[in-house]
Amino acid sequence: MKNKKIIIIGLICTFLMGVLAGCGSNTNENQAGKSQKVSQKKAINNDSSKESTETEGKSGKVLVVYYSATGNTEAVAKTIAETMKADTFELKPVKPYSNDDLNWSNNNSRVTKEHDNPSSRNVQLTTTTVDNWKSYDTVFIGYPIWWGIAAWPVDGFVKANDFTGKTVIPFCTSASSDIGDSGKLLAKMAGKGNWLKGERFPSGASTEDVQKWVESLRK
Ligand SMILES: Cc1cc2nc3c(=O)[nH]c(=O)nc-3n(C[C@H](O)[C@H](O)[C@H](O)COP(=O)(O)O)c2cc1C
Questions:
Q1: Together in a domain, 23 and 120
Q2: Of 82, 60, 77, nearest in space to 218 by CA
Q3: Same domain, yes or no: 87 and 145
Q4: Atom of ligand 1 nearest to the CA of 66
Q5: Within 10 Å of residue 41's Cβ, how many Cβ atoms?
Q6: Which of the 8 DSSP states describes residue 176?
Q7: Same domain, 73 and 22
Q8: In the chain, pLDDT over 70 holds for what percent of residues?
Q9: How far is the CA of 97 from the centre of ligand 1 (A)?
Q10: pTM for the complete prediction?
Q11: Is the CB of 161 under 6 A from ligand 1?
């Protein structure tokens, strides 16, 4: 009889401990869920072990990096920076592209030669060092589309910096091409960071359209 009582009390204790342990882990999960309310965004690479997430309303400190040969991407970059209250960082080739350099219909222009020979796309930039780089949580990276991919002056910046722990949002301008795989290729070059799919704007994108897109990222 006494033994039976001990067994029953033992079983009740085991059951209660199980219930309490279960409650504990649920509480932790819920707290994590609350403090890190996230909106899922389409990811294209790198922090592949986890889903791409962007903390809702919390982009942290934001930097807008861009290269622009003729001003279209720069206009978009400035609107993003104003809307996000972000810092900007312009990528400047040591040898800027002249209009003749950019003439893609000339087989002998600089840009056509670089396009035809990928090993010559190593464009030296005046600097790739951003002050307080580590302090930025979100990095927008903008470029014109050249022959369907990101204009290669951005490559040097992407290769030179460590994107670990950062959310990276590509954006581009083009005459008609979509963003395509341009961001994916940059993500591969970077090797690190949580790269989102990004957005393409037409060459003369309206301020309102850019603002709308930026606002949509915060939802
Ligand atoms: C060398 C070169 C290649 C281009 N290739 C494409 C292209 O493949 N698809 C496209 O839609 N536009 C293309 N464009 C147009 C640019 O992407 C477009 O004008 C862009 O807005 C320029 O941006 P930027 O003023 O910031 O330099 C090309 C322009 C240049 C100079």
A1: no
A2: 60
A3: yes
A4: 26
A5: 17
A6: S
A7: no
A8: 74
A9: 13
A10: 0.80
A11: no
Residue 204: give the domain boundaries.
Answer: 40-218
Confidence of residue 11 (pLDDT cuts 50, 70, 90): very low
Cα 168 to ligand 1 centroid, rounded to whole Å: 22
User: What is the residue with the minimal CA distance to atom 27 of ligand 1?
Assistant: 69
Same domain, 119 and 195: yes
Q: How many domains does the chain have?
A: 2
Same domain, 29 and 129: no
Q: Which atom of ligand 1 is nearest to the CA of 104?
A: 1
Residue 130, CB-side half-sphere exposure with 13 Å CA sphere:
22
**Coil, helix or strand at residue 173:** strand
Q: Is 147 in the pocket of ligand 1 (CB under 6 A)?
A: yes
Question: Per residue in 119-138, pLDDT tens?
Answer: 999 999 999 999 999 999 99
Q: Which residues of 118-152 are buried (b: 16+ CB within 10 A; e: fewer)?
A: eeebebebeebebeeeeebbbbbbbbbbbeebbbb
Count other Cβ atoms within 10 Å, centred on residue 191.
13
Whether 145 is in the pocket of ligand 1, judged by its Cβ within 6 Å, is: yes
Distance 146 CA to ligand 1 centre (A): 5
Q: Who has greater pLDDT, 50 or 207?
A: 207
What are the φ and ψ backbone dihedral angles of 114, each rounded to 5 degrees? -65, -40
